[in-house]
Amino acid sequence: MMSFKKGNFRIGEAELKCKRADGCDYYGNPQWDGFCSKCYKDIQKHRRMNASPKKVPINKTSEKQDFKKVGSTEKKSKLSYLKMFNTIKSKDDISEKSKKDYDPLIAKKLDQVDIEYSPILSETKSLRIDLKKQIRNFCQMMMMSHLQSPVDIQSELTQHFYQNILDMLNNNYSYDELSHEKKEQILDYAEKYSMIKLYKFLFCMTLADEEEDLAIQKRIRQLNWVNAKHLDCDIDKTNAQIIELVYKAILELLDMDSATAPQDKLACVVRCCRHIFGVLQGGNNGMKGPASADDFLPVLIFVVLKANPVRLKSNLHYVTRFCNASRLMSGEAGYYFTNLCCAVSFIENINAELLSMNIEEFEQYMNGTLVSDTWDSALIICEGMHQMFEQLALLADLKRRNIMIVDDALKLKNEMSDFKDNFMDQFAVLKEVYTIVDDCDETNNKVAVSIDDYDPLCSNLPSRTMIPQVIQPAERTRTSSSCTDVDSWDIHSAETVSLHSLDACFNIPQENNEIARSSLEPTINVQPQLDEIQEISIQGWQIPSIPCETGGKEITNSEINMQ
Amino acid sequence: MDESGDGLTSTGSRTTAQSFKVVLLGEGCVGKTSLVLRYTEDKFNDKHVSTLQASFVKKKLNFNGRRINLSIWDTAGQERFHALGPIYYRMSNGAILVYDITDEDSFQKVKNWIKELKKMLGSEICLVIAGNKIDLEKDRTVSVEDAENYASSVGAVHFHTSAKMNSGIEEVFLSLCRLMIEKADKQIADNLVTLNRSGSTRRRTVIIDDEDDVPSKESSRWCCSS
Hints:
The complex is a heterodimer.
Chain A: H1 2-8, H2 13-16, H3 37-50, H4 55-61, H5 64-80, H6 83-101, H7 104-121, H8 127-145, H9 151-171, H10 180-202, H11 207-222, H12 240-255, H13 262-282, H14 293-307, H15 312-322, H16 325-329, H17 332-348, H18 359-367, H19 375-452, H20 472-491, H21 496-511, H22 514-562
Helix pairs in contact in A: 7-10, 8-9, 8-10, 9-10, 11-15, 12-13, 12-14, 13-14, 13-15, 13-17, 14-17, 20-21, 20-22, 21-22
Chain B: H1 2-10, E1 18-26, H2 32-41, E2 56-63, E3 66-74, H3 85-89, E4 94-100, H4 104-121, E5 126-132, H5 144-153, E6 157-160, H6 169-190, H7 201-207, H8 218-225
Parallel strand pairs in B: 1-3, 1-4, 4-5, 5-6
Antiparallel strand pairs in B: 2-3
């Protein structure tokens, strides 16, 4: 800015004029990228319409303060418009920004937060709108100022924002019926939503943070030889359950980096610490009393050393700066977080005295000249032990199942032998009964067999060989079919199918034609079957139709009577 | 009291409970954990598994019709963690310093803690000293007179307690509560005009930097810190 101002006196009038190519006669202004107010407005409008990707790079390359001033002038001009217009416009700004600054992942996360808190937000009518407006304004402000104002100011602004929301909830009469817990949840929502949105800008924002991250990471790597004994915490390395819990605690601590909202990061710390308490309790097979801070802190330090989480310092700074201060001051999460800070501070200041060992030994360890019982090897051992215990557990399970199978097999064998005995008993009884029956049968059979030869019924059976004759089959079918057809004719005189068959029947003797007769045979053969079916259907149609109609009439009559 | 009541409504705290943070300081094995367990759950024997931990405990109580939420923070008492103290006790409203009456060293530790607390937090923190294990009166090495004289010289209240026999513990916490409420009321009355945030925690975190002079007014400190 300064150099630009100095140069200002030397440049000619032409350069002070609006930068527009076709020569606008007005003076330009560095605040408006060297355009005059009218041209700048036009250009801005044009950009907004196209939602061109140029806007952000231009703003970034142009001086930051200019950007801020542009924002404020825009705001001022907006204020003079209708309020409705104002909100719409700022919404456009946000959405436009979000297109470039946010990846879909953040948008998805924000949607999730919205869904998670929607029951609370929809409880009071204007709450959602009010909150959204506050969050939007805050985010906009933070995004504009994130490059120039120092971290402390940003943190202060964030805390003010939380306080403003709390004041809004406490002082607005429309929120009077909300309970304290609900107000807390609403505040949670505001914190979560805005922090996820601003995470990119607020997390690890200075170079100093990054350097600290690398320093602590290097430090922990250097301290890889520190084991549980150095810290006076007894972790039973032979107990699979406890090793499992240590691993879980480490994983939770590593997870902290992937969470975005401060409370999500805190939740990771809380889960990690709960696992550590599990370790402390399980230490003596669950017989130990409630763990105190004396036991807890060493294990936490041990876990931090073993985990060596990425960007640890940045995470801690982010939470202390942007998490709601009241949450950090009191509450379980705050306590665990404080302990984590203590652990990190201890690691940073670790020396021979703190580990109760002599200085030379400590130095040798730190130089890497002394590498006895390194943590890496311990880790490998742990890993091996872990696998071994897993396999042992698997074997135990298999053994248990094997025993179960053997038991079942024995049971089945017993059942089978029982069944066999039972069966044999029953069989013996039945056998006794059936021997009598068998005797009777045998006598009957003997009689039957003896009678069979003289059975008069059998004498009517056809002769063993049947010789086909030319006329015989035709005569037989004619007589049989005519018989059935006459029957059907008698009963259902109106039936057309039977009429056909009757025609056929009458036609056969009249024509006396062999070919016609043979061609008619199939219809004649099928006819009786059809008649049988139609007999039933016709009867069914004829018989119930009368009572049905009368019944229906009766009902209608009775209904009429009733009416 | 009435004035402070008005102050509370302005921050919306009359309907909600006031919360205080209390840190427990003391050497290892003086009975900090037992003291807390006795107070919050009325248990002494540490063979019960129902409570997972006794390092962070919440206690709700009613004090003259005002609802108080105490969060009690246990601290690691080992010598090697001594330097971590400030991280624990910043932003706390009260501190309970526990020593073992049979252990002269633990009483010396209490003196160190108090010196440090005074340096860091000034008169902002309410102090209570508890001489624990009075059931072992016959082995006493710290004389009653010494302890009480020291307590009054630093503006702390002294109590004799026994977690084993459950004596004096209720009094320790109640007296600390009274002190903290009085302090909070006074603070609210002082800052009635300027107070716009109920927590005012941020300010205190910044204050730790200038440790030598101990200004009593919140506002003056606010100026120099920013």
